[in-house]
């Protein structure tokens, strides 16, 4: 998509036994591996990670003799890998669980609620009523999928459950044992070679940055009816007709049979409303360094927003989008979207309590069900489903700021500045990194 001809993959280790305001700083990061390009390593990434896993095993079982400058003596240092930080497509390579298709959610696992949309030709992930208590919404057929929902929520998987289910799946070198019913498991994760990994409750983080970007894309594309981005298209209306729900939105053929009429949906805005929506973003003034100049991403004449970066989407979702949404849209649509914005803003706080997380967990379930009553089925891709699990991950791993990929992406920008030989970027990065480390030690 970005016309990049070469892709080099750095593997960076971050030290967590430091104060929270220090552990994500560039000076405390270690470049442990450089996986050469020009393409993504895919499932064979395990072969590149094998030396790192062996060293981590040594650090855990035996330790390494290390000098303590403060006490002027040596000690046996041990270390354990807590989790990995990566975007969702990379999740499939590291965990071995396919993040596409019927069972795309690694948290729900085999309990993922999926539906194939025949006309939109994609999977959607709905039926979020299973996460609700037994309240009237579970018996509301008309507003949801036309059925009463009695199923309990899927149980949370333990590391031991994953480890046991992986015994018959691909081993570390890609040799698949002869057994059927592998399901969505693509391979066995190499991290289970670590003896403590199966007892780890949080192994691979869901990247909040990646989820926010995709949610903003879906919301803006649908509200502004951007071609190729909107989820409120003709095929989405035919999917509603096939399911027999929201009859007022079903497409209707004209008398001559040559055209199809589409009724106005809640998520549709008039041209004047789109102009106001874009105008608010166009005239917004942001603090220096908080995001890029979002006004450059707004095309008022075409009434669309494009080309914004990941951190722009983060800032818009937290602060900007609720302003035009509240002033333009009806409360029926505006309230769920504002609640979604509030959820991510509070989730990303530096200080958060367990009581607050319990409230967020309940709120995001209610918000997702409210959205399910309004937006077309094609809107609910896997990124709309994943926020259901984010509050629980904060309970297990702590604040989002120490578990998302923003610091790593900024550091990769530093690594890119080291490149002098574009034909062999790995050599330039490794050489510059070693020189910088030596200069830091000498100083």
Structure description:
By secondary structure, this protein is mainly α. It has two domains: 41-112 and 154-204, no CATH class; 208-402, no CATH class. Helices cover 38% and strands 8% of the residues. Helix 4 crosses helix 7 and helix 9 (331-347) runs antiparallel to helix 10 (354-374). It is globular and about 85 Å long. It starts with 8 loop residues before the first strand and ends with a helix. Residues 170-182 have low confidence and may be disordered.
Please tag this protein with its features.
about 450 residues; two-stranded antiparallel sheet; mainly alpha; 14 helices; 2 domains; single chain; globular
Brief synopsis:
This protein has 443 residues and is mainly α. The chain contains 14 helices and 10 strands.
Task: Output the structural class.
Answer: mainly alpha
Strand content: 5-15%
Spatially, the strands of the biggest sheet line up as 1-2
Taking pLDDT < 50 over at least 5 consecutive residues as the criterion, the unreliable ranges are 170-182
Mean pLDDT score, rounded? Answer: 87
Number of helices: 14
Query: What is the CA-CA span between the terminal residues?
Result: 42 Å
Largest sheet: 2 strands, antiparallel
Q: Helix coverage percent of residues?
A: 25-40%
Could you tell me the number of beta strands? Answer: 10
H and E string = EEHEEHEEHHHEEHEEHHHHHHHH
